[in-house]
Design a protein that fits this description.
The chain is an alpha+beta fold. It has helices at residues 22-53, 58-66, 71-85, 89-114, 149-180, and strands at residues 6-9, 12-15, 116-119, 125-133, 140-146.
Length: 206
C-alpha cells in the first residue's frame, strides 16, 4: 500500500497518496509539483498581458489565448501584437527577454510534465524518459534522466528561476497597460525576493 502523509485542514484530514517509498518518492512529487505550479503562475501573467493588448477586454483576451494550439503559439502571438502596438523600445526589449527566459524554463517543465516515469524493483522513482520528434538529424530523440541529486538540483533551480521571473513579469504588466492606455489588471500579492528559496531539496537517496 502507498504511504500517505496527512495534513490537517479545518478539522478534516487530507490524504495525499505517495506511491512507493515515501522517504524517496515524496521529494520528487514535491519538486515536480512545485515546478508545475511555478510554471503555470508565469503563463497566466502572459495572459494578463494579452488582455491588455486586446484593449483591456478580458473575454476577448481569453478567446484569443485559448484559440491558440499551445503556449509557444500564444506567446509568439502576444509578442507580434506588442511589436505592432508598443512604441517603447525598452519595454519591447524587456518583454522579449522575459519571454526568452520563460521558453528556456518551459523545456524543463515539458520534460517533467510529458515524460515517462520509471521505477526500480522497490517502486522507487528512478528515471524519466522523454521522446520528441525533430525535422533535422534523427527524427526521434530520446532524453533519459535518473533521479539523483543533480536531477533534483535542476528542478530546484527551475523553480527558483520561475519565482524570480514571476516578479519580473508582473512588473511588466502595468508598464504595458500604461503604454497601451488601458487599465492595468490587478497585481496579486507576490512572494518577496527574500522569500524565494535559494535551495529547494537538501538531499535525496541515490
Amino acid at each position: 500500500m502507498p504511504d500517505r502523509p496527512r495534513r490537517e485542514r479545518k478539522g478534516n484530514t487530507v490524504r495525499i497518496p505517495i506511491l512507493g517509498p515515501m522517504d524517496h518518492n515524496a521529494g520528487i512529487y514535491l519538486a515536480v509539483g512545485g515546478l508545475v505550479i511555478a510554471w503555470a503562475n508565469n503563463e497566466s501573467v502572459f495572459l494578463a498581458m494579452l488582455q491588455s493588448v486586446m484593449g483591456g477586454d478580458r473575454d476577448a483576451g481569453n478567446i484569443v489565448w485559448f484559440s491558440q494550439r499551445n503556449t509557444k503559439a500564444r506567446i509568439d502571438l502576444l509578442l507580434r501584437l506588442c511589436q505592432a502596438k508598443v512604441h517603447d523600445k525598452a519595454l519591447l526589449r524587456d518583454l522579449r527577454s522575459a519571454a526568452s527566459r520563460f521558453r528556456g524554463l518551459s523545456r524543463v517543465r515539458n520534460l517533467y510534465c510529458h515524460g515517462l516515469y520509471g521505477y526500480d524493483p522497490q517502486f522507487r522513482l528512478n528515471q524519466i524518459i522523454s521522446t520528441t520528434v525533430a525535422d533535422d538529424g534523427a527524427p526521434v530523440r530520446h532524453t533519459q534522466k535518473f533521479f539523483n541529486q543533480a536531477t533534483l538540483n535542476e528542478l530546484s533551480d527551475a523553480i527558483i528561476k520561475l519565482a524570480e521571473l514571476n516578479r519580473d513579469l508582473w512588473g511588466l504588466v502595468p508598464r504595458l497597460a500604461s503604454e497601451l492606455g488601458v487599465s492595468s489588471p490587478p497585481i496579486p500579492q507576490l512572494l518577496p525576493p527574500e522569500g524565494i528559496p535559494r535551495r529547494f531539496v537538501e538531499d535525496t537517496k541515490e
